[in-house]
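Hi C.,

You asked whether I'd gotten around to modeling the 483-residue construct. I have! Everything is below, sequence then structure, no commentary in between.
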Amino acid sequence: MDAASPRTLPVSARIGADLKAQIAQGVYPPGAALPSTRALAAELGVSRTTVTAAYDQLIAEGYLETRPGGRTRVAAGILAGPSPAAAAAAAHHLSAFGRRVLAEPLPQGAPGPAIDFLYGDLSGSDFPVLAWRRALNAVLLRRPARLGYGDPRGLPELRAALQAYLWRARGLRCGLDQIVVVNGSQQGIDLCARLLVDPGDRVVMEDPGYRTARQAFAAAGAAILPVPVDAEGLQTGCLAGIGPARLAYVTPSHQFPLGGVLPAARRQALLAWAESCGATIVEDDYDGEYRFDARPVEALVSLDRAGRVIYVGTVSKTLSPQLRLGYLVVPPGLSEAFTQAKRLADRQAPGLEQAALAGLLAEGGYERHLRQARRRNAARRAALLSALAESFGGEVRVEGAAAGLHLVAWFESLPAAAEAGMAASARAVGVGVYPVGPLYHDAASRPDRAGLLLGFAGSEPDAIRTGIRRLAAALAGGISVRG
């Protein structure tokens, strides 16, 4: 007997078939909430009864599950097939780079919970709306005679303002031709990977470290050499044992995620190693402007006498990650290569935003804003530290809180395998927390205790205290430990 054509099936059956296909493709992964019957009915232009019938059939077949008063969700045991991206890629020839990109998927952006300790978010109330509007208006009123493409390195006035700022704030002296304005630090890291790494080249990475940087170098074909970190950052004593490498990626001013500051002796050892084997050092100064017990430390590049360090800076942690503005300071011998690569990538960073930032830097508004942001984030940091102490006491050890916009909370009595369950329990009560485990390249090298990466710049002190109390209550109710 021939199968019925989809067009001859009842409407509820067609809806059910479409939902099954979306579940199989991973559009709705296990545990994901489906739209309410009322919302889906309105979207499809059918009656709510029709959608309810489709949901009921999928519940009966085990695809969906529901609880009294709760949203209908995809059943926990459902196995999704290939993602839509992977299925589409299979129909085309991907380069080796494309295949490496798909091999380690990036986390997907999704709406966060009500109180989110996601690192990288900033509070919207901190953005200097009036100063930025004045700077933008001043640019718009200049009305150039012609509109065209600019220098791929960035506007000359912005590079001049950055040159002066970096000398004042980070002890960094450089020529204008060494500065390349990029679309955020991630593009800067990607350019470093594309220009400096051939497939098979060895690249030193901190372990644990910044996962997206690791993925950028891995996508370029690098052989990743994880080097452990401790309370003072990269353990440079381990470099002799691993031999030469093409490149080392480091966060010396505030190690991500554990927060150590690389001391002078280790900085000198790292520079000496790079010079001895001809390696390039990529210094990511992602939130070096934030230090709460002293003034920010000077950048590693300020000690570089052999031209081995590329400095990566950004305004994503000072103004907004939505501006997508960052900058590289490259050795003079690499200036032309980075300029041409930037031209090929996207011609230039956005001109209006560059000009507005140049004005903000030149008239002092950027540093005034930064002083205010430091004070506000110091208050958020204090709220987080006191809330952790009040809710967990000696059960939690805090690491990396002296600088930056995040800290790591180690739960001494919980095993590393508990992290996923902790995050799920917190999300169930409207709190976003993030396991530190995925930041380790070598899982065997991580401590056997649970750790959470807690960013505090995106929430206000009252919300931070509420979030930690909810987290404590959720963990007190018990968590599932996943091996």
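If it helps when you're writing up: The first strand starts at residue 64 and ends at 65.

Thanks,
B.
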